[in-house]
Design brief:
This protein is of the alpha+beta class and 281 residues long. 30% of the residues lie in helices and 21% in strands. The protein has a five-stranded mixed sheet with strand order 1-7-6-5-4. Strands 2-3 form a two-stranded antiparallel ribbon.
Length: 281
């Protein structure tokens, strides 16, 4: 990355751009006086001139993303549940598998990628329904399952906080999307976030899915006598009748759920049938 790109990244972390209002015409370069001199723009220059400076900085800071090889596609999300495959990512830095010596035998082991709580107030404050709907529209040409902004980091014997990065993570149906189409969709999502003044956040597409039930058949398959602790934890999550229910609050009332029902044509809500004495009103 050249000096201009480095200055741009540093400046973003020091002072974010102004909040999005009605569109990109309201963008303003962070610390405009610093860049007026560099690009020979006078103090009374129009906002259009400053917008051009911002576009120049973005173009200069970006580098074309590359198609991941088989090893990167397989191991990039190592540590995530199910080890999902990488489809595409807008980040241009080359990925390398990092290892650490594990245990007394110092066995070479790959660092695991883990989730961290999203703490950046600039993203939390700017995330809104319009942004979500714009991303949903951009994902309309693929079979996506879910998306959310999140921080990730690598972990071995210790947590490597210096590897933390904030990304927009998008899950698509396994084997449904190739890299060429995937990177177009990822780039479009990144452009949308930039229109809402969210910079320095890359987009990563992985294969994944969700099951709109209490538990999936894959989860139930883990119920085995040789895994008593796992079985004890999972059993209350199963969707068959008979699992325990109680209040989260400190209130009396405990019992079990009977059958699951839906009312009329409403398919969006499922209800669990139980005795009235179990959950008093």
């Amino acid at each position: 990355m050249n000096n201009l790109s480095t200055s741009w990244s540093a400046q973003l972390s020091e002072k974010p751009v102004i909040h999005h209002k009605n569109g990109p015409e309201n963008f303003q370069c962070p610390n405009p006086k610093r860049y007026r001199k560099r690009f020979n723009i006078s103090d009374d220059s129009s906002s259009e001139s400053l917008e051009k400076v911002t576009e120049i900085l973005h173009l200069d800071a970006d580098t074309d993303p590359y198609e991941p090889g088989p090893e990167e596609a397989k191991d990039y999300f190592h540590g995530f549940c199910g080890s999902p495959r990488l489809v595409a990512r807008t980040g241009h830095r080359r990925w390398t598998k990092t290892m650490f010596p594990m245990g007394w035998e110092q066995t070479p082991t790959q660092h695991e990628k883990c989730y961290m709580a999203l703490q950046d107030p600039e993203i939390i404050g700017k995330w809104c329904k319009d942004l979500s709907m714009s991303i949903i529209k951009a994902l309309s040409h693929c079979e996506w399952a879910y998306f959310f902004p999140i921080r990730t980091y690598l972990r071995g014997e210790y947590r490597l906080y210096d590897t933390a990065a904030t990304i927009l993570l998008v899950a698509v149906k396994p084997a449904s999307l190739g890299w060429e189409d995937g990177i177009k969709i990822a780039s479009k999502c990144r452009d949308i976030m930039r229109k809402f003044s969210i910079f320095d956040v890359e987009v990563e597409l992985m294969e994944g899915q969700y099951t709109p039930h209490a538990a999936s058949t894959q989860l139930e398959a883990l119920l085995r006598p040789e895994y008593p602790e796992t079985t004890r934890i999972i059993r209350p999550l199963l969707s068959h009748p008979g699992y325990s229910i109680a209040y989260l609050e400190d209130r009396p009332g405990e019992g079990t759920v009977g059958l699951h029902i839906k009312l009329g044509a409403d398919e969006s809500t499922a209800y669990g049938l139980s005795c009235r004495r179990t959950i008093p009103t």
